[in-house]
């Protein structure tokens, strides 16, 4: 398995770093075990010392994440029709499918933007969005904003740590990762509170 963090650190002064950022953020969009956040944070930390370009870090990460989010959506669109045929009207699974489709129609932007900050959540949301045949144009618009926001936030938390602790790179990285966890936790709490009022309705049959 590739050690993405070590690879990024070994290329910190090389243009190839941005290719690594594209690759890791692309793969992390549908393979939750790929650790994109720490890699982006490290790149952000080194931007504070001038060894990387923070604008290029954000741009490369955004590009990779955007392309990566298209993969589960495309897979969902591909298998969505087959899935719908296996969900008879009146069943709980069909009700869950129809409920999620309505939720996306009503607040698709909020769902896609907030789940982008949650490693497993972003994969499930993008896949489910494809499964319910969410319009491609709206999906592209929402994930463009979501991936740009996530990339900027992740890289800038590292950059902030680098600015505050320029003499201690390990501490700067730790601070960046800590900030990322705090904000991610806060977003998840907000998302769960909003979710309570819109639970999947029960149906008569399985």
TrEMBL record:
Localization terms from the record: Cell membrane
Question: By what name is this protein known?
Answer: VTT domain-containing protein
Give the family per the record.
Belongs to the DedA family.
Would I find Hydrolase among this entry's keywords? Answer: no
Q: Which domain of life does the protein's organism represent?
A: Bacteria
Q: How does the UniProt record describe the way this protein sits in the membrane? A: Multi-pass membrane protein
Write the record's keywords in alphabetical order, separated by commas: Cell membrane, Membrane, Transmembrane, Transmembrane helix
Q: Please tell me whether the keyword Acyltransferase is annotated for this protein.
A: no
Domain VTT as annotated: residue spans:
34-159
Query: Where do transmembrane segments lie in this chain?
Result: 16-34, 54-76, 139-164, 170-190
